[in-house]
Every structure is written in structure tokens, then in C-alpha cells.
Protein 1
Amino acid sequence: MPNTTSDENRAKAAASLRELLAGNRRFAEGDPSPHVVSAAQREALLAGQHPKAVLLGCVDARVPPEVVLDQSVGDLLTVRTAGQSLAGVALGSIEFGVRALGLSLVVVLGHTGCGAVLAALSDDHADGHLGELTGEVADRLAEVVGADPVRATGANLDATVGALRAMPTLRTPAGHAPFVVGLLYDMGTGVVAVSDDGGLLTDG
Ligand SMILES: [Zn+2]
């Protein structure tokens, strides 16, 4: 694993984030890349994976990350849980991208109209594993006043980004904390907005 400096990490993470945002613009404008994967490209990928980012998204069928960000095979290490919950084994998969692959960009992709957020806001909590999951989202929303779904969606995204930034085990092999960025997908317009880039696109 290359022993990159933090400046190199920042430049690489910022470039990757810009590529994802450019991909979303192509998607939202109805002009995505064709994503035909040739045999030669598949063969090149046999040598190893070098995705642009770890992406934690929602399981919602209407928000497939590779599609809405116009990315192809090998571009994203994607983890999906309902409401981007960090419950269960999701964290281990995120750590795999950062610790084993050395990725310095972790994207959390929230979306409008998230059923898991609505379920967490309701008093009618499910039992079983689903209940654990919505309970974890509900805990994150505990400080949100009222039950406004728009505010709750933003609060849920902010809380996930904050939790990942605070996680001491999320470090690249060179010892760097990854840049954790929150993006919000609007299901109506198809547009992704940066909700919190931690200064990645503006500082430094
Ligand atoms: Zn959702």
C-alpha cells in the first residue's frame, strides 16, 4: 500500500468527489455514460480493485449509487443499508475499503423520501432485525425537534457523517483518517447536493 502524504490524500479524495458529482450531473441531465465494460477492462480489473471511494448508501431501489452517480464497474466500493444505518456489519465493510484498500474518500449518500427515516420517526417500531436497524436511525434522530421528515433526513445524514469521522478504527494503512463526505440525493430532480464536504472541496 503506498505511503501517501495527507496532501496527496486530500487531492485524490477531492478529485474523486468531483468525478462523482460530475457523474451525477450527467445522470440528472439524462446523458449518462453507456458503461459498456469490455473484456479488456474486465481483465484489467482482475489485477485488483482501485475504487474512487467507499460509499454508504440506502437500500432504496430508487437510489442505486452507481446509477445516480453515473459510475461503472470498479468505481465504487458500495455498502447499502436501510437509511444508511451503521448497525450490524456495515461498519466492517466500510473499514475494508479504508483499511484494506487504503481509500481516503468515504461518501454517505442520503436521499429525500427515505422510508427508513420515516419508519424511525413513527411510533410504530418493527420487531426483529428491522427494528434494530430503524432503532439505530431513531437514536440518531433523538435530538431532532419534532418529526419533520426533511429535517430528519438531513439530521440522519449529518449524524452518520459525524459518527464515521469520529471512528478511531477508520484509518488508512498509512494512518490517515479518510475524508467523510455527506451527499443528499433529491429523488424528484435526480440531483445530488453536497451537504457536508468537511472543507474537502474548498480548503487546502
Ligand atoms: Zn432510504
Note: The chain has one domain: 6-115+153-196.
Protein 2
Amino acid sequence: MQPKDNIYEQYAYSYPHKQAYRELPTPIPLQAAWSKEDKTRLSAYLHLPFCEMRCGFCNLFTVSNPKNGIDTYLNALQREAQNHRATLPSIQFEAYAIGGGTPTFLEVDDFAKMLSIFKNDLGVDTNQKYGSIEASPKSISPEKIALIESYGIDRVSIGIQSWIAQETKLLGRPQTPELAHQALSQLANSTIPEINIDLIYGIHGQTPKSWLYSLQKTMEFDPVEVYLYPLYTRPLTGLEKMNNQEKDHRRTLYKTGRDFLKKEGYEQVSMRCFRKAAVGHVETRHNSAVDGMIGIGAGARSYTRTLHYSTHYAVSRKAIQSIIETYSNKKSTDFQEITYGIYLDEVEQIRRFLIKSLIDGGSLDVDLFEQHFNQKITSISIVSDLFEQGWLTQNGSIIRLNEAGMEMEDFIGPALFSDNILNLMSEYELQ
Ligand SMILES: C[S@@+](CC[C@H](N)C(=O)[O-])C[C@H]1O[C@@H](n2cnc3c(N)ncnc32)[C@H](O)[C@@H]1O
Ligand code: SF4
């Protein structure tokens, strides 16, 4: 396993990718899909597929500035949540996330309604369990912060990307540093225990000096966590054309960012994630590689051990809008059936286990692996390969990517994909 020139292949935060999902041969009743699963340690996810603008780099399932349809979307979300509770009354959630899109895009009343659906209709005890919500500088407000506090949400992740107006403009996300400053000051004055700031490196024209400036500016808010994202551009966009004209500086900027944050007292958890060493929760956040997830909302995925499913997947505005519309028009009974997803045989379950354990700050628990799959970790050749490359370190029964491995994370993740999944992804026609 040796990288070619480019180590930035893909952010493998989940497996299999939705591009490998297909229409199921026969629809599966929700109850049947979950009947043999342990439903006591689930993760809950809520997807809000709306943003105030569509950033030039983003290929997430979201549309910007929908003119209408928020109400009907939230009503469908409520039907879906209630249907889950009624069909699977024994579900218990251990951790949760509210993402998108930008959940704080909603007006205060709608934002309150969304949180209430999650807590009261789906039954996620947001005050007792560990959870996170995504926010943007433009849409966060004191009223929404007060709601986040009252629901006991532990972590707010906010996309700042860069402190230089010229750079955020180039990212197709015009944002003044003043606006970012105002949002972070509001969050700093709240009682929310963990604030995460997202930054991006590899922007056209970004230099080590301008990158260091953004990192230093970020330190003024003393965030518990910082995520550093290498920029991935979408094919055929202006951003991609611009970035193709210049040398790829991402690896240099990555090292600059990593070394800077370590000096500032952050612990490197993964290629992207840096946390203040003294603050806990990393383990809670990176749920065990074998626990299931229930996602609600258009674009949300759900996982049992053997079946992953979601609504249809798309990237273009028109196709996403049509999926959201179909979702919003679903009747309660429509949520009883799963029609789109992928089955995971044991080979795929093992690959998923490795990816969830090694990528994005996880840890590979050898005992759990051997118990679960009834085979020795030493019989998995790809793991031996990673050791041979010097990218893994073992401590007792726990294996993790080491510093050299984390640097290669966006190469290692995709290298763990099976040929079957790679074929399905390449055959998928993006809409
Ligand atoms: C799930 S997104 C949503 C956060 C929120 N909507 C916002 O943008 O403020 C989380 C982060 O992923 C990063 N991201 C998304 N697409 C990216 C891309 N193509 N390249 C690099 N980073 C990306 C951005 O830093 C973003 O803040
Ligand atoms: S990066 Fe965030 S705000 Fe921008 S389009 Fe993507 S989800 Fe929306």
C-alpha cells in the first residue's frame, strides 16, 4: 500500500458512501430491519438540509435559501420521528448529532420546533446524553443559543473556514471577519461546554502566513476543539479550475496547522480534529464501530449491522429539492418502509469496522473486533500492511493511527474500501 503523489483522495467519515446505495430489491419494513438489533445504545441524527448560501466547495445534501417548504419539511420530520417511536418503542439513544446543512438556518420558532421533535417525538434525551449541533456565523443568534443551552446540547460546531475575507469570498462563502467575531463572542458568552471551530486549508492564494493568521485569530476564542479541513473542490466548478492552476500546498499547510495547534496545547485526535487535552468526551463522540444509528430527515442515513439506508442521494440543487419535496409529502405509513440503501455482508462489515475504528479519531479495539467477527486481527492483511507502513501504533489491545498515519488519513480511508463498493460508487450517476 503506497500512495501515489496525491494523498488527498477522500474524507472517509462513513462507509459505504451513499453513492453505493441503490433501490432495494424489495422494500423492508422498518420493524423487520431492526428486529434483531440491540436498540439500547443507538446514535440519533437529525438532518436539516437548508443553508443561507451554497458554499462553492460543499457537496453535502443541502439547498440554499429555500423560498418555502420549511413548514412541510418539519411536519414530515415530526411524522417520521413519531413513526420511529411507535414502531420501535424500545429504542434508546446514547449520543446524538444535529447537522446538515445548517440547522441554525431556521428561524427561532422553527428551530425550537425542530429541537422539540428530536427530543419529544423521537425521544432523544438531549440534556442527559452527549450531543452536537452545527451552526454558521450568519445564522447563530442569542435566542438560538439560549435554546441550545436549554436542551443541554454539549457541543456547537461552527464553520468559520478562514479569517480572511478574500479567502472566504474565494470559497464562495462571502463572510466578514466581523460577523465571525460576533458569532464566536456570543458562543463564548454562553454556557455551552464545547465550541468547535472549522477551518479550511488549501484555498486558492492561501499562504502559510495567511493560514497562520487564521489559526492565531481562532485562538482568541479559546475553542475546546478545532477541525482543520483540507479543501476538496467539486469537479467542473470555478474553485476546482482555480486550484488546478497552482501547486497543491495542502500537505505543507496541514503540517503548519498541526504543529501550531500542538504548541497551543491541543491534542491531535485525527487528521482533522484537535482538542484541548484536558477535555473529555472524545470516546463518547466516536461511538463504537458496531452500534447502530437512526437518522431522521431527508438525507439522513440510518445503520443497522447489516443494512444501511437513507432517502435517495443527489448533489445538484434540482435533484436535492425534488428529494426534499418527496420526503416532505410522505405520509406516516410511508415511513414504515425502507426502500433505498445497501446490505453489508461480513466482508463489508469488517471494512466498516476498520474504517470507523481508525478514521476520524476512532480506536480499534482488538478484543471487540475478535469477539465480534470471530477471527484474529492479525489475519486481516490490510491491518498488517498499515503496520508495515509505520502508520499504526498498538497500545495493549487498542490500535490507533499514529502521527504519520493521521497525516495519511485521506489516503488510508479510501484504501480500506472494497472493490465492490468502489465499483458501485463509480457506476453511480451523479444527479
Ligand atoms: C458538515 S459541514 C457543515 C457546517 C455548517 N453548515 C457550515 O458550513 O458552517 C462541516 C464542515 O465541513 C467542511 N467542509 C465541507 N465541505 C468541504 C470541502 N469540500 N472541503 C473542505 N472542507 C469542507 C467545512 O469546514 C464545514 O464547516
Ligand atoms: S459548508 Fe455548510 S453552509 Fe456551506 S453549503 Fe455546506 S452545509 Fe451549507
Note: The pocket of iron/sulfur cluster (ligand 2) is lined by residues 51, 54-55, 58, 60, 62, 100-102, 136, 159, 173 (CB under 6 Å).
